[in-house]
């Protein structure tokens, strides 16, 4: 069968042996919205980490809401309640966790701006201050023990040990996240999807650490500045 010719360009043949069809972009590939599948994978990963962290923080918040409610009721109804004198080292604890929250936020922003060296340094500083916070907590418990104040001494000391120890256990989870980010920051990663996943993980750990910061300030005010009888 003869080929039909219009001018000098043959018409595109159809059928099983036809030539490749061009996509909407005219370059042989279909048009993508946004940045393509990698963009949607990165956004899905970020949402997954964020939602998981919010769920975890909600459960922790419920736990401390129950404990602090019991604290308030017990303090208002007990005749054996003895106000606890605040160990001064807790002022250092509070300063350390506030500053560490600031340095971690800067580390998160440095990662987004691709300042890897500054990101690593700030992560290391945040981790060190996190361990410093725990060390100061242990020192406060030792100071109280030297004064003869233990978990069973009176209701206020019982709640102090319970609330601070529970917070410290959850803070260990944040420190584990910081150490994971520190190790990950030392790896050379060129894949764009892996980089997006790393940023999502950093956002999640930062959110959790800020939550631990705010939670400690609340407990500190509750234990030593709330109405005592």
Q: Can you tell me about this structure?
A:
With 229 residues, this protein is an all-alpha fold. Helix content is 70%, strand content 2%. It contains 5 helices and 2 strands. It has a two-stranded antiparallel sheet. Helix 1 (37-77) runs antiparallel to helix 4 and helix 3 (116-146) packs antiparallel against helix 4 (155-185). The chain is elongated and about 65 Å long. Residues 1-34 have low confidence and may be disordered.
Notable characteristics:
mainly alpha, two-stranded antiparallel sheet, 229 residues, 70% helix, disordered N terminus
Summarize the helix and strand pattern as letters.
EEHHHHH
Low-confidence spans: 1-34
What does the main sheet amount to?
A: 2 strands, antiparallel
First-to-last CA distance:
105 Å
| Number of E strands | 2
Proportion of beta-strand residues: under 5%
Q: Which class best fits the helix and strand makeup?
A: mainly alpha
Helix content: 55-70%
Query: What general form does the structure show?
Result: elongated
In round numbers, the mean pLDDT is: 82
Number of distinct helices: 5
Radius of gyration: 29 Å
**Strand order of the main beta sheet, please?**
1-2
Oligomerization state:
single chain
């Amino acid at each position: 069968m003869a080929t039909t010719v219009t001018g000098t360009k043959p018409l595109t043949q159809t059928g099983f042996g036809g030539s490749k069809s061009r996509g909407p972009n005219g370059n042989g590939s279909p048009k993508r919205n946004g940045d393509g599948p990698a963009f949607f994978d990165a956004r899905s990963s970020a949402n997954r980490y964020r939602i998981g962290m919010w769920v975890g923080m909600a459960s922790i918040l419920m736990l401390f809401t129950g404990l602090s409610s019991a604290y308030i009721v017990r303090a208002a109804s007990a005749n054996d309640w003895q106000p606890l004198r605040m160990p001064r080292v807790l002022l250092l604890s509070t300063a350390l966790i506030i500053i560490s929250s600031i340095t971690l936020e800067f580390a998160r922003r440095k990662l987004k701006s691709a300042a890897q060296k500054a990101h690593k340094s700030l992560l290391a500083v945040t981790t060190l201050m996190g361990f410093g916070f725990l060390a100061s907590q242990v020192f406060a418990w030792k100071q109280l023990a030297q004064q003869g104040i233990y978990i069973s001494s009176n209701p206020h000391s019982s709640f102090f040990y319970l609330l601070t120890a529970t917070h410290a256990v959850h803070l260990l989870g944040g420190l584990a996240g910081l150490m994971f980010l520190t190790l990950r920051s030392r790896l050379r990663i060129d894949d764009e999807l892996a980089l997006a996943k790393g940023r999502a993980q950093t956002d999640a750990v930062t959110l959790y650490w800020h939550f631990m910061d705010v939670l400690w300030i609340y407990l500190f005010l509750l234990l030593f500045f709330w109405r005592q009888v």
